[in-house]
Amino acid sequence: MPHYEPWSEERAEAVIGEFAHLEGPLMPMLHAVQETFGYVPDAVVPMLAERLNVSRAEVHGVVTFYHDFRHEPAGQHVLKLCRAEACQAAGGDALAAHAEHKLGCKLGETTADGRVTVEPIYCLGLCATAPSAMLDGRIVARLNERRLDALISEAQS
Amino acid sequence: MSTNSVTVRIYVPKDACAIACGADEVVEAIQAAALARKQPVEIIRTGSRGMLWLEPLVEVATPEGRIAYGPVEEGDVAGLFDTGFLAGGAHALRIGRPEEHPFMAKQTRLTFARCGIVDPTSYTDYVAHGGYKGLERALALGPVGIIEEVKKSGLRGRGGAGFPTAIKWKTVADARDDRKYIVCNADEGDSGTFADRMIMEGDPFELIEGMTIAGIAVGATKGYVYTRSEYPHAIAAMEKAIEVARQHGMLGINIAGSTHSFDMEVRMGAGAYVCGEETALLDSLEGGRGTVRAKPPLPAHKGLFQKPTVINNVLSLTAVPHILADGGEFYANFGMGRSRGTMPIQIAGNVKHGGLFETAFGITLGELINDIGGGTASGRPVKAAQVGGPLGAYVPTWQFDLPFDYEAFAAKDALIGHGGIVVFDESADMVKMARFAMEFCSVESCGKCTPCRIGSTRGVEVIDRIVAGERREKNLEVLKDLCQTMKLGSLCALGGFTPYPVLSALTHFPEEFGDTPRRLEAAE
C-alpha cells in the first residue's frame, strides 16, 4: 500500500526544488508532488507558478490536462483495469463490469469506505497477454475472473 | 537426481510482460528450490524473447545451448528441478532451444537481435553481442557519412508516419543554432503495441547508441527519451542503462574518447495519449499542456525549446546502430517497394501465440495472424484485426492477403502505424468498437482543432442514435460526413485518423449498423 505524506508547504518547496535545475521542469515537479502527497494539491499551483515565473492559470492548465494528476487523494489502493482495444478483444469488458459490480462503484470512482479506487487505464503494453490490470503499481496479465477477485480481495483487506 | 556443485546459469526475463505473468515469483521459487537442493545457481534477468504466450520463459544454460521452458508458473518449479531441467531434461513445459522455435526461426531479427539474450544492465554483454559497432563506424564516417548511410538504408519513421529518417536528420544537420536536440518518442500509447517497451527493457543500450549516433550526425549534444507513466519498468531499465553508459564513457563529454559529447535523460508523460504526436510531445516535454502545434515550422527547424530537433520513434532510432554497423545497403536489402528493412510487428489481442515478430516488410496480415499467431485464443473464428492502434482501420478477414507495407495499407484506407495488430474473434461488436474510437478521441483530444474536439463527441451521439434506430439512413450519412470533416480538418493524426476505425467498421460490417449492404442493394 502506498504511503503518502500529509500536506506541508515546506516539504512541497523541497520536493519542487530538487528539479529546479532541469530544462522544462514542470512535469517532473508535478510527478514528484503527486508521489509525495498522493495528489496535486491546489496550494502547490501558486508555488509552482512563482518558481517557474509563469501564471497560475498556466500551471492549472497543465495540471488539469493530464489524466494522471489527481486533484484529491485516491482510495487506499488503486486498481487500474486496462480498457484499450487489445484487452477488450480478450474479454476485458466483462471483467470491468465484474469489478464494478463487486466493488459497488463505477470505473473512475472510489468505494464508499475509501479503500479502493478503480480506474480505467489505456494500455499497459501487455497486449499479447491481455486482459491486464495494475494494483498499486504491480502489473498483472492474463486476467480472468478468479485473478481479478484475488486482486479485489487484496485491495479490500 | 544428483546434486551438482557447478553453478548453473538460469535466465528469467524481467520484461514487464513476464513480470505480469509471474516471473518474479518464479525467480523466488527457483532460488528456494536451489537452496533446498544445495544446488548453486546464477539467475540472470534478461529481456523477453517475444514469445509472450510462453512467458515466463525460463532458460537454462546447457552444453547444447540455452534450453527453454515455458510458460513456467511458481508451482511448476519443484517439478522442473525433479525432472532435471538444469541439465535440459525432458518436461511437459520444455520448449527446446528458443532460437529453433518456429516463431523465432521465421523472423529476421536486427533491432531485436539481442533482446531476451543479454542482461540489459550489462555494458559488457552489450559489447560482446555486437553493441557499439555502429557508433564506432559512425565516429569514423562523421556526420555527412552517417546521414548518407541512413539514406541508403531507406529507413522510414517507425512511429507510423513513415517519413524518411535521413531527410529529417539532414534538415537538422543543416540548421544553424547554438543548441540542437534528439528527442526519442517512446510514448507508445497504441493498444496492441509494446515493441518500444520491450526494447527499452530488454536492450536499452541499443536506444542509447542510436540516439548518440543521431546526435553526432546532426550536431546535438542533448537527448530526451519521452515515455509513458504506464511503463515504470521501461523507465527504470533506461535510467539504469544511461547510468552504466555514463560510467563507461559512452555518454557525457568526449564519448568513446572522441571529440563528440552527448548525454540524455528520460522524461515521463502523464497519461495523455495525444502526447505521442510529436509536437504535442515537445510541448509536454517543455512543461506545457500536450497541445498539437501547427506545422510549419517543422520540429527540425523549431522543435524543443524552439531549437532544431530530431524527433524519432524508438524503433527508428534502434534500427540505426545496425544500419551503421552493417551498412545502409544491407538494411535496404530487406523489405518491399518503398518500405525497406525490417519491422518489429506486435501480434496481440485475442490471439493464441501473441508476441513480437520482427520481419522484413511484405509479409501478409493473414500469415501473421493465422500462421504465426495461430488464430484466436478463444478458438472462435477471426472476425477482423485492428492494425496500427486506436487510429488504425479494422481489416476484415477477406483483406488478410494485404502485405505489410506502408503503401499497400494506405491503398486500402488502412495504416501500419507502429506495427501493432489486435485480433478480434467473431464475438466482436463492430458498432461498439466504432463508438469506442470516437469516445477515445473525445477523451484524448488536445482540444486544438474543432473537428476533433467536438466532432468526436458528436460522433458518439450519432452512433448512439444509429443504434437506437433513430432516422438510421440520415444518421449514417451524418456519420460519414462527420468522419470526412475530421479527416480533413484536424491538424494531427488523432482527429485525422479516428475516422479510419469508424469508417472501416462501417464499410466492412454495414449490417451491424443496420445499413443495407451495397451488394444487396445492387441485387434488388
From TrEMBL, chain A:
It comes from the Bacteria. Keywords: 2Fe-2S, Iron, Iron-sulfur, Metal-binding. CDD domains: TRX_Fd_NuoE_FDH_gamma (cd03081). This is Formate dehydrogenase subunit gamma. Coiled coil: none annotated. Its cofactor is [2Fe-2S] cluster. Belongs to the complex I 24 kDa subunit family. Signal peptide: none annotated.
